[in-house]
Amino acid sequence: MVMALDEKQTANFFEGVSKAAETVLEAVREDSLIHVFSHLDADGIAAAGIIGKALYRLDARFRIRITQWVDEKFLAETLEEKPQMVIFIDLGSDYANLLKQKASEMEIVVLDHHQLGGEPAKGFLCVNPHIYGIDGARDISSSGVAYFLAKAIDKVNIDLAPIAVVGALGDLQDKYDQRMLGGLNEKIVEDAETQGLLTVEKDLIFFGRETRPIHKTLASTTNPFIPGISGEEDKSLAFLVSLDIKPKHGDKWRALRDLTEEEKKRLCSALAEYLLSKGLRYEISNLIGHAYTLNLEEPWTPLRDGREFAVLLNATGRMDKPSVGVAVCMGDRGSALEEANKILEDYRRTINKYLGWIMEKSERIREMENIYVVYGEDFVDDKVIGAISSILSTSLPNPEKPLIAYADVKEEGLVKVSARTIDAVTYKGVNLGEIMQIAAEKCLGKGGGHNIAAGAQIPTENMETFIKLVNELVGKQLAGEKIGS
Ligand code: C5P
Ligand code: C5P
Fold first, then answer.
1. Whole-Å CA distances, 311 to 344, 347, 348
2. Distance CA 420, CA 392 (A)
3. Pocket mutation for ligand 1, best pick of 450, 451, 452 (most atoms within 8 Å of C-beta)
4. Whose CA is nearest to atom 10 of ligand 1?
5. How far is the CA of 330 from the centre of ligand 1 (A)?
6. Whole-number Cα distances in Å, 8 to 80, 150, 186, 204, 355
7. Relative to the CA of 91, which ligand 2 atom is closest?
8. Residues of 195-217 as b/e, b for ≥16 C-beta within 10 angstroms?
9. Alpha-carbon distance 455 to 266, whole Å?
10. Torsions phi, psi of 480, nearest 5?
11. DSSP bridge pairs for 418
């Protein structure tokens, strides 16, 4: 069931969007140089692609940079280059405030969906669903905000709706019944559907459902994560054969889309049983759901399925090639897509390597009273620690214990922390975004994010204190205590 949108909240949100559109249009009319800074994950990259395409269509002067976070060095460079307008996407508004204080003449626009922490926006526009009482963790993501802005700039940008759907899926906003997008995201889905650009249907929603041999699909799925099958093609193949599902038709491998309804049912109930036997009942709800198919994309490419597209974008960011992802979102289906496919393969290998390393020694997963802690040392790349944390958090023995995974950020004297939990725990009152923010502040770092997924950067020497604090704060929230000021 999708809850009806609150009309007043929605109207206020769209008023904010219109104001931002006017501001951007004015800057373009004045031939301003516009710098766009966006976040490294799928949502940030999709949002950057949407804004990039809208600006390109206006013939604007702009530059896009994708980053994991904004820091002082970044600000110093921006101050030196003196763009007339800066658009921050998916990165919070703290640094926008700092930049505004240092360069009051600079026009700044923030498009975001993270919980509001820190100082309110002063002297610039911030379009964030939370300001209007709309849930930014499930009802709209940054690429949705970017999409509505692009559409307010020019209706022609309605063709970017599927990219916004991809961004929302990348941020795991499909939290409505059977992994459906709801809230303002549903409006975007409708836009895409009415244009004939998107089809929504219920199905097994494994990664690769459109494109890959079934056993490879099962083996490459990380959401749900199926221990003994995820990452293990031989075992997946054996699993299929044990169910009497033929992996090939003649000499051609079959994809999930080729299965009969009866075969799909058989596969689905066997997987559910298997997950249950591993104590992973939360993952069962991830087997069947709403699939989002991008009609204009070629079948047999990872762009055809919304979730596969999102993983591809995420991979380009995590493997240090975000501009390839942005180019694909802006419409490049030639060399950028070819490169993106290679990056995706590389990304999968890397994740499997890291998961293998973590599992190799039991002490690499430390269990505390209220949380699990995984330290990737300098082996796990800090840009991939978020994905590792997402995968591990639902596959540890007690998925009700939040996980904080962290890795060294080489040469910065910092660690990057990624905290993840599951819905059931947030319903009990745990808010990882709040915990990361409060604990990081006490440890001279920076933190924030959603209740279910959050992160922080912490000076290495304060990490043990940080871990203890997080463990305590989770305990407090579980006991119903308020932890903020
Ligand atoms: O919103 P933040 O951009 O940039 O999200 C980073 C990551 O957090 C996502 O890629 C996703 O893995 C995770 N996430 C989640 N559940 C949410 C939102 C985000 O697991 N509701
Ligand atoms: O980096 P990671 O994927 O773990 O981040 C999870 C969520 O927390 C993202 O939405 C990210 O933008 C947010 N975050 C934040 N402040 C930080 C680090 C992460 O708001 N310092």
1. 8, 10, 10
2. 9
3. 450
4. 171
5. 22
6. 41, 22, 17, 37, 46
7. 12
8. eebbebeebbbbbbbbbbbbbbb
9. 39
10. 85, 10
11. 405, 455
Give residue 473's Cα distance to chain centre.
25
The size of the chain, in residues, is 485
Ligand 1 center from residue 126 Cα (angstroms): 20
Exposed, middle or buried by CB within 10 Å (0-12, 13-18, 19+), for 248?
Answer: exposed
Nearest atom in ligand 1 to the alpha carbon of residue 390 is 12
Give 454 Cα–ligand 2 centroid separation in angstroms: 5
Q: Is the CB of 172 under 6 A from ligand 1?
A: yes
Which domains, from first to last, does the chain contain?
A: 7-191 (3.90.1640.30), 204-358 (no CATH), 361-478 (3.10.310.40)
Q: Is 171 helix (H, G, I), strand (E, B) or coil?
A: coil
Residue 284, number of CB atoms within 10 A of its CB: 16
For the record, the structure tokens of 345 come out as: 């393969």
Which pair of structure tokens corresponds to residue 287? 């087997």
Alpha-carbon dihedral sign for residues 93, 98, 100, 106: negative
Q: What are phi and psi of 264, to 5 degrees?
A: -60, -45
Q: Which of 44, 331, 324, 57 has its CA nearest to residue 197?
A: 331
Mutating to test ligand 1, I would choose from 69, 171, 185, 286 the residue with most ligand atoms within 8 A of its C-beta, which is 171
Tokens 């990664």 belong to: 207
pLDDT at position 219 is 85
The verdict on whether omega for the bond into residue 224 sits within 30 degrees of 0, i.e. cis, is: yes
Say whether 248 sits in a helix, a strand or coil.
strand
- Between CA 440 and CA 456 the distance in angstroms is 7
pLDDT tens string 276-301: 998 888 778 778 899 999 999 988 78
Question: Phi/psi at 208 (nearest 5 deg)?
Answer: 95, 10
Whether residue 52 has pLDDT greater than 60: yes
| 1 has pLDDT over 70 | no
CA-170 nearest atom, ligand 1 = 10
Question: Which ligand sits nearest to residue 286's alpha carbon?
Answer: 1
Summarised one tens digit per residue, pLDDT across range 181-218 is 999 999 999 999 999 999 999 888 887 787 789 999 88
Helices (H), 322-422: 322-329, 335-360, 385-393
Distances in whole angstroms, Cα of residue 426 to Cα of each of 171, 224, 277, 432? 17, 19, 25, 8
Non-local CB neighbours of 260 within 8 Å, separated by 6+ positions: none
